[in-house]
Amino acid sequence: MAKRALVLEDSRTQATIICKMFQKAGFDAVWVQDPAAAHDALKADRFDVLILDVFIEGYNTLDHLSEFRDLAGGAPIAVMTAGRIDDPESGADALNKARRGRVNFLLPKPFYFDDIKQICEDVDAYWLAHPTEAVAS
Predict the structure, then answer these.
(1) For a tag on the chain, would you pick the N or C end, based on fewer CB atoms within 10 A?
(2) Can you give the CATH number for the domain in which 54 is found?
(3) SS3 of 92, please?
(4) 131 upstream amide cis, omega within 30 of 0
(5) Which domain does 105 fall in, by range?
(6) 92-109 tens-digit pLDDT
(7) Does the structure show a pLDDT above 70 at 133?
């Protein structure tokens, strides 16, 4: 059974590209466009990794990291951001906040397939090290 990634990304174009990269790496990717849909998906299904865009129309996923972590059922969390156009330092600030929040993976945009591939390999290793917690496999 393929591993599963839940991708929270408000841009349809970026979500399509990101999901295709996860699929190329052997993961089934499920895209949601807003935090409420992500919460619903996490309540309904189990995922091997959660991928969060930081800035989503007035919402900062890092301010709600504990909620996502609780709903993710032990799955590793990756955050991705390019920052905000009106605040050039927001990307670096967000990635530092994510690191302090102990997310598993940081994905500064733009990122490449090799970055996704490494995350997928690390997620596989994570679940091998935590077999009693495996959720979707």
Answers:
(1) N
(2) 3.40.50.2300
(3) helix
(4) no
(5) 3-133
(6) 888 888 889 999 999 988
(7) no
User: 71-130: per-residue pLDDT in tens?
Assistant: 999 999 999 988 676 777 777 888 888 889 999 999 988 999 999 999 999 999 999 998
DSSP letters, 52-81, are EESEETTEEGGGGHHHHHHHTTT--EEEEE
Strands (E), the chain: 3-8, 27-32, 49-53, 55-56, 59-60, 77-81, 105-108
One-letter amino acid for residue 52 of the chain: L
Identify which of 20, 13, 17, 5 has the alpha carbon closest to the alpha carbon of residue 51: 5
Number of domains the chain is built from: 1
State how far the Cα of 58 lies from the Cα of 129, in Å rounded to an integer: 37
Q: Cα separations (Å) of 135 from 2, 20, 98? A: 12, 22, 23
List the end-to-end C-alpha distance of the chain, in Å, as a whole number. 6
* Tokens encoding 5: 């990634």
Give the other-Cβ count within 10 Å of 128's Cβ. 10
